[in-house]
Amino acid sequence: MRSVELPNFIQHIGAQGVTTATESSVQREQLTRHLNAFLECQRFKDVATNGLQVAGRERIANIVVGVTANKALIDAAIEAKADAVIVHHGLFWKGDSPALVGYHRERVAALLAHNINLYAYHLPLDVHAEVGNNACLGRRLGLSPTGTCGEAGLVMLGQLGVSADVRCTVLAAYVARHYGRRVTLFSHPDRPIRTIAWCTGAGGSLLTDAIEAGADAFITGEISEQHVHQARESNITLIAAGHHATERDGVAALAAHLVQQFGVNYQFIDINSPV
Questions:
Q1: Could you tell me the end-to-end alpha-carbon distance of the chain, in angstroms, rounded to an integer?
Q2: Model confidence over 182-194: pLDDT tens digits?
Q3: Tens digit of each residue's pLDDT (9 = 90 or more) over 107-164
């Protein structure tokens, strides 16, 4: 295992406090219909509940977006006088207990007490061609997409916009610089990198799809122990840049889309996670 960290990194575009300022609003039902259709939620068999998870006030003018619906983000949304919160990781997942107890109760209670809507989009926000997390990673790193692979196209394929082959340490340093954080690299120094596969978040489970597609390198957010051995034995470079870090861009891009569509205000609030 090799870790790469560069001192001069690029700060995330959605830094805490980035806002828009307009005076328009949209009805909750209209916003819900638009989001569900735009993100094509019906396409996906997901482990998460996609769409409106907690209903609040009917008119929405101020939106807070973030990666995960944790209590810190909800408290920040209350402070920002948000009408709605839109996240990638919501509150309701298949296999979880439906009981509203402990921290789960506190999150829902805070939303209801302040009449705030909560929207969450998981796989639909990963793969959307315009605002998806994968598409945003490609744009951030300057990758030229050539296609997708895996179920529902969860893995993107492409190349760096350079004519020469890239070495694994150079690619890892490049990713580290553009995400402003340490990345974990499992490499094969003798293999030149031309084709790159990527999937944000906990994409390690999709490593097989990248290998079968003939990728020389796979960039994801989070991996598990078994993926290291699989990468070594399959002669593919594996780079993990952080689950949270690689999934910040999608919600910000989605919010910018809503500004264009409805003229609402939005604020991206980053409750950082080291994972």
A1: 17
A2: 999 998 777 889 9
A3: 999 999 999 999 999 999 999 999 999 999 999 999 999 999 999 999 999 998 876 7
Q: Are residues 214 and 256 in the same domain?
A: no
Q: What is the mean pLDDT of the chain?
A: 91
Question: Above 80 in pLDDT, residue 201?
Answer: yes
Tell the residue number behind the tokens 């989001």, with chain if given: 35
User: Which one has a higher pLDDT value, 162 or 253?
Assistant: 253
What secondary structure does DSSP assign to the chain, as a single string?
Answer: -EEE--SS-PPPTT-TTEE------EEHHHHHHHHHHHTTGGG---SB--EEEE---SEE-EEEEEEE--HHHHHHHHHTT-SEEEEEE-S-BTTS-----HHHHHHHHHHHHTT-EEEE-SHHHHH-TTT-HHHHHHHHHTEEEEEEESGGG-EEEEEES-SS-B-HHHHHHHHHHHHTS-EEEE--TTS-B-EEEEE-SSGGGGHHHHHHTT-SEEEES---HHHHHHHHHHT-EEEE--TTGGGSHHHHHHHHHHHHHH--EEEE-------
Question: Could you give the number of structural domains in the chain?
Answer: 2
Where residue 162 sits, what CATH number does that domain have?
Answer: 3.40.1390.30
Give this prediction's pTM. 0.91
User: Are 174 and 218 spatial neighbours (Cβ–Cβ below 8 Å)?
Assistant: no
211 lies in which domain range?
2-9+128-246
| Residues 19-33 pLDDT 10s | 555 669 999 999 999
224 lies in some domain: yes
Say how far apart CA 91 and CA 77 lie, in whole Å: 16
Whether 273 is in a domain gets the answer no
